[in-house]
């Protein structure tokens, strides 16, 4: 005996039998196909039966794509991102007016028929025959739901979307069979709930909750009669009946829905008349989609979170799997972003740098011992207009940053010092440190092939008065170039490379730094995030932790929530506690009495290092307390602006030093971020002072202008070797990519330069006395 469907109607077997008799007829009518001849119908009928049997028995219903919410560490929303703006709600959270309105206008016999409305088919067939065309369709609400499932499954693939909506008899047959299955398995109320959650209401709103928020700024459960009628009317043609762009058409359509609701007995004719006279009273909420809408200047951090999701295998083995999960949405992503730290970062940037300045500033704050990114911001806002950019200056190329990062100048020197201390050199190590010298040669490398200074390349200190001998403490405070070149020559390149590996210090393009002595002067491009996490290892007494941005993720699928695995920070020992404590002591001296005095914190212990590069194209301050590390970069992304006689943030600077512009940015950002937090102390190492006190003023950021250009004898950029090759690339390359430095487009973060393309010669990149011009 055929099984009866609960709630009345035909069983699947009976539905199938009926289907065989009317499927072609119904399909033709509902797909809007005019079949003029009985012979054609007969041929199509035979084919339709075979196709029907071959259709898989179960309709695969993908989870509905929904909006993803990105939260800060305290659970407050940073931004919402979505492929389709949708919030799935239960039928009990949808206004009864809305439920009745959509049924009245789309399928008034919804509760009386099964998957196929035979009366509706015959009525439509008769009307279409009389008109000689397609005047009326007969798709049930269940069939419309099935079609929407096909569209949802197609995602954003235009080919698949076209296939899911193509007006063919074959698609209608497939739709009809699945409608039978859906009616049997779900029942009327669940079908109505699913339909109202999946269908498109225009204005980027998918589902009735998003539509209610978009047009009336209220929840779907609170819709009144006329509001529900308006939304129900939109479904047939979201563009034609868009109330935002064509109020008259929308009102006309709304009133038709109200009239239909009265005709089927959902409301009285008096209620319909009153509602028809009411104005639309829209209260439109504009879509707030994407990281560009993030609060507290967190757009770049938001994009970093997205990049982490799309790149980390923990979210899927392939890029396609990760993208599908991201676009599906329904995620609640709790991040590491500390709202207090983020607000402090943005406040500091706005106080010291204007977005219209010819240079930009970027700041990253991380937590030592955990790798948590606490704050990330920059002076040029996220966007696509003048003085805006989509490039995140805080991160490397693979995460949406510049092609190569930015030259770090003397902020690199602590890495060399750490390597020497790991090799057993004492903190009182002394070198002759002349004002000017040839790069010592040969220098041992990891592969056993010594680096040789074949060109007689030279290195200088900032000022002729800087003449050694110097010990490490004074050399670090004054940032003496020749001292660190001699140190790296003494210990060899391999210990330095090992230290860099432990601190995960790589170039902005992800490549390891070259084994050449000139890296001690910071000529290679590195990102602020990389520098902040590396210095955080010193603060954590030698423990390096990989940076993380995501704390947890939950995904909503239907009415259920599940937790997703997220990347974890990996912590490992980079240098010994003794080495880290010694570096901390050395860098405390930099902010106490050296080049970084303007960055020093007054209420707690701090340490850090300044850096200024070739012709003052980049200025840095990287510093930390025991519980927070931060890196600040100031410069031009195009590397074309020389920060001499320049106005930044409304203040004129004859020369920009790492301690003068980045230093105060760091100080103010850290002060606010650390407010009302504990103030732990460093483990200080006793380092005797030099035997003789030269009485020099260490306040200037010395040794970082000509020295940091890897010999500085180039003709413009100076990042060439001793023969002067490799210059002039900043103007050439920067001009080609950016078209200028004030408000022009930034370089594309995915654009890369072949090795040596803008180099003076091979020695610029391989002998290590220059960068040869590989700058974005």
TrEMBL record:
Residues 703-718 have a biased composition (Basic and acidic residues). Residues 594-611 have a biased composition (Polar residues). It catalyses: Preferential cleavage: (Ac)2-L-Lys-D-Ala-|-D-Ala. Also transpeptidation of peptidyl-alanyl moieties that are N-acyl substituents of D-alanine; [GlcNAc-(1->4)-Mur2Ac(oyl-L-Ala-gamma-D-Glu-L-Lys-D-Ala-D-Ala)](n)-di-trans,octa-cis-undecaprenyl diphosphate + beta-D-GlcNAc-(1->4)-Mur2Ac(oyl-L-Ala-gamma-D-Glu-L-Lys-D-Ala-D-Ala)-di-trans,octa-cis-undecaprenyl diphosphate = [GlcNAc-(1->4)-Mur2Ac(oyl-L-Ala-gamma-D-Glu-L-Lys-D-Ala-D-Ala)](n+1)-di-trans,octa-cis-undecaprenyl diphosphate + di-trans,octa-cis-undecaprenyl diphosphate + H(+). The keyword Membrane applies. Residues 594-614, 677-776 are annotated as: Disordered. The chain crosses the membrane at residues 20-45. It comes from the Bacteria. InterPro entries: Beta-lactam/transpept-like, Glyco_trans_51, Glycosyltr_51/Transpeptidase, Lysozyme-like_dom_sf, PBP_transglycosylase, PCN-bd_Tpept. Residues 362-640 form the Penicillin-binding protein transpeptidase domain. Residues 719-743, 767-776 have a biased composition (Gly residues). Pfam families: Transgly, Transpeptidase. Keywords: Carboxypeptidase, Glycosyltransferase, Hydrolase, Membrane, Multifunctional enzyme, Protease, Transferase, Transmembrane, Transmembrane helix. Residues 75-261 form the Glycosyl transferase family domain. This is Penicillin-binding protein. It comes from Streptomyces pharetrae CZA14.
